[in-house]
């Protein structure tokens, strides 16, 4: 079991089971949503339990994706491909050790010009 929360604690969550290696998304939408790079792990929606779900605000950023954040403190929490059975959970929102490590950088062609990716992990342009 892995637990997490937003900055103010209005939203808490638990994920049952092991976490997949997270990805770091460098696309413009993820950078704007998170303030930098959005690192998340994809989990089955059935394994995610959210308390304070009424405090989660959703922004429909495209026809296929909505992004969840705490309506009180603004913490970025979820990346939800609405037609899939999984959801991305922000790595920075976990309160407990995750026993995982970043696996890949995605959308690196869109990354900000103010940083370099030099950790040796695989990089995908899209």
UniProtKB/TrEMBL annotation:
Keywords: Lyase, Metal-binding, Zinc. Signal peptide: none annotated. The keyword Ribosomal protein does not apply. PROSITE patterns: CENP_V_GFA. SUPFAM superfamilies: Mss4-like. Residues 2-116 form the CENP-V/GFA domain. Belongs to the Gfa family. This is Aldehyde-activating protein. It comes from Brevundimonas denitrificans.
């Amino acid at each position: 079991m892995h637990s997490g929360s937003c900055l103010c604690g209005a939203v808490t969550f638990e994920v049952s089971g092991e976490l997949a290696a997270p990805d770091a998304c460098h696309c413009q939408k993820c950078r704007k949503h998170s303030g930098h790079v959005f690192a998340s792990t994809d989990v089955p929606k059935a394994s995610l339990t959210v308390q304070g779900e009424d405090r989660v605000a959703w922004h429909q950023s495209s026809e296929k994706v909505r992004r969840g954040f705490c309506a009180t403190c603004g913490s970025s929490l979820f990346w939800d491909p609405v037609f899939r059975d999984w959801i991305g959970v922000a790595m920075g929102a976990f309160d407990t050790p995750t026993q995982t490590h970043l696996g890949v950088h995605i959308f690196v062609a869109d990354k900000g010009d103010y940083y370099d990716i030099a950790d040796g992990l695989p990089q995908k342009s899209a």
